[in-house]
Design goal:
Length: about 600
């Protein structure tokens, strides 16, 4: 059942009269609230029925998303209609608009480009340019206009070609037009006619309502969850951006992450999460999410499970191959929730710790040891650094947690708990500590810092140095890493003078985190530099020095007998002899 309302109840039966019947007859109810005046109890119809609530305000694709969710709920997910792109724009007279849309290799069936407009005549003309340069215009059979409903539809026969499509629109009417663009498609079929698993995204709120009652925080936190997957394999490193419709206007778009921080419980499990921290009074809040991989950073990792993260055992030596996800776009609507009460801005963060007792932070946070308080005037997900002095080294751990406090002294729930083991564990032989990341001194492209990774040596031999590195703190779309090095000392050669030229220089893929530097000289000290390269520039290098292993007595062979010394030429005045070289270039 789909219930659409734009005002309050004014006749019987009321929602409260029939709500008990929904469970009795196992009826799933979806609701659409049109504007801020829709009845505040509308969302109660979806609770417990498995339905979803939507909020439509102004020009958006919410209505289409709501009808799509209603009509395709019981369809096989592999065959569900996927929204690839949405856009709302106002076009003045003779004004044009261009939209670039990615149809990726996992979709392409029943592909449709739709655009509706605010006036009934066919005053919005479209031209669709396919990846191969072919065009579709209003004179082609694929292009259908419905003036009664003020919309046009371009349907692609068969399977749409994977690649970038371009939709150009022109307002030919004398008046401004509000235009909404929607691009949808289904899963592509393989060579045997079977549907492949498409890249799918879903979004939802953590709660269907949020409120503050008096001075006690009850359910005043809200979380956004976005799942991105291809079948059961999570899609990692995708760009996920949420836009929230709030009373009085949209909240500025913000990132939703899968990094194990803040609202995100498990890193790299395909579930991207974020807290909604900016409330703008009572009313309904709607959610629209854009998921994309236009920078080609997303990967499919068979070593991870959706909702669980990595499944690799620390001792597992198997090499798992990660596959680039390719460019794609998805748009999903996360429904709506209702907000009641007066919300205030965060003014302070309070950090407390406990030595050896994690439960005290959950059970009685205010009696745990106070570490510090931090002003709450920074943006969400911004990083603060604080050094905790006076911690004891020993066979124990310290636990840390944070609560937020607003300017009305409301306190949030306790954050996730971070721990630090104070047991001293020396590094295994041959593994060096991480380098300190260099502090960027200049901004790239005028706006963004790009920091180098932290690097360390994992293994050393006479002719190789094996290194590994971490992700940089500020990555800004890394596309590859540069590894280069040079000789800085030859202890066995007192006449050696170091050169400024690099002995080797390699570039590796952005997904790679290790590199084996081969063909080196024994007993030689090298300087190795690792830098990150993105589309905005090159980071300062992380620098590490390491000597290769020395030559041993066993590495140097000697002639087995005097018979190996032979006379090449004999004369009355000279004798020339030849001694075979050992396998090593270093002879003592």
């Amino acid at each position: 059942m789909l219930v659409v309302a734009g005002g309050e109840e004014n006749s019987s039966p009321s929602i409260s009269d029939i709500i008990h019947l929904l469970d009795d007859y196992q009826i799933t109810v979806d609701t659409i609230a049109i504007g801020p005046e829709a009845d505040k109890d509308l969302e109660s119809l979806t609770r417990g029925t498995g339905g979803q609530s939507f909020y439509h305000s102004g020009s958006s694709s919410t209505l289409d998303e709501a009808f799509k969710a209603f009509s395709e709920r019981n369809r096989d997910p592999r065959d569900a209609l996927i929204t690839v792109f949405t856009k709302s724009v106002q076009l003045a007279r003779a004004q044009s608009d261009t939209s670039n849309v990615i149809i990726d290799a996992s979709i392409g069936g029943d592909t449709q480009f739709l655009f509706d407009y605010s006036q009934g005549d066919a005053s919005i003309e479209g031209t669709l340019i396919l990846p191969d340069g072919t065009t579709i215009t209003k004179t082609d059979s694929e292009y259908v206009t419905d003036t009664d409903f003020s919309l046009a539809r371009i349907t692609i026969a068969g399977q749409a070609t994977a690649g970038q499509w371009q939709l150009n629109l022109m307002n030919t009417s004398p008046s401004p037009q509000n235009v909404t663009i929607i691009v949808q498609s289904r899963a592509r079929k393989d060579g045997s006619g079977n549907q492949v698993d498409p890249i799918r995204a879903t979004a939802t709120w953590g709660k269907d309502s949020v409120s503050i009652m008096g001075d006690t925080v009850e359910t005043n936190n809200q979380t956004i969850f976005v799942t991105v997957s291809k079948g059961y394999v999570p899609v990692l490193n995708a760009g996920v951006t949420a836009t929230v419709s709030v009373p009085g206007g949209d909240i500025q778009p913000f990132a939703v992450n899968d990094d194990g921080l803040g609202a995100d419980i498990q890193k790299n499990d395909g579930i991207y999460s974020a807290f909604l921290t900016k409330f703008k009074g009572e009313g309904r809040y709607g959610l629209s999410v854009m998921v994309e991989n236009t920078g080609n950073t997303a990967i499919l990792s068979p070593a991870t499970v959706l909702g669980q993260g990595s499944i690799i055992h620390p001792d597992d030596e198997q090499v798992w191959s990660e596959t680039p996800a390719g460019e794609f776009q998805r748009v999903v609507n996360g429904g709506s929730f209702s907000c009641e009460g007066v919300f205030c801005a965060v003014s302070t963060y309070e950090i407390r710790s406990s030595k050896g007792n994690i439960n005290i932070l959950y059970d009685n946070f205010v009696i745990a040891d106070l570490v510090t308080t931090i002003a709450g005037n920074n943006l969400a997900r911004s990083k603060e650094s604080f050094t905790v002095p006076g911690l004891d080294i020993g066979p124990h751990s310290y636990f840390f947690a944070i609560v937020a406090i607003d300017d009305s002294s409301h306190r949030s729930l306790v954050s996730n708990i971070a721990s630090a083991s104070m047991r001293f564990i020396p590094l295994p032989p041959g593994i060096s500590p991480w380098t300190e990341p260099p502090t960027p001194t200049t901004k790239l492209n005028g706006d963004y810092f790009l920091t180098a990774p932290m690097v360390r040596v994992v293994h050393v031999s006479k002719t190789s140095i094996y290194i590994s590195w971490t992700d940089p703190e500020f990555s800004n779309g890394i596309i590859k890493y540069s590894v280069q090095g040079k000789i800085i000392d030859k202890p066995y050669n007192p006449m050696f003078s170091p050169s400024t030229d690099f002995e080797f220089h390699d570039e590796v893929d952005s997904l790679q985190r290790t590199f084996n530097v081969n063909n080196l000289q024994p007993s030689t000290k090298y300087e190795i530099q690792v830098a990150a390269i993105s589309d905005v520039g090159r980071s300062d290098p992380a620098i590490i020095t390491q000597s290769t292993d020395p030559v041993t007595e066993q590495d140097i062979s000697t002639p087995s007998s005097l018979q190996e010394i032979r006379s090449d030429q004999v004369s009355t005045s000279t004798v020339e002899i030849e001694i075979p070289h050992s396998s090593s270039e270093f002879v003592r």
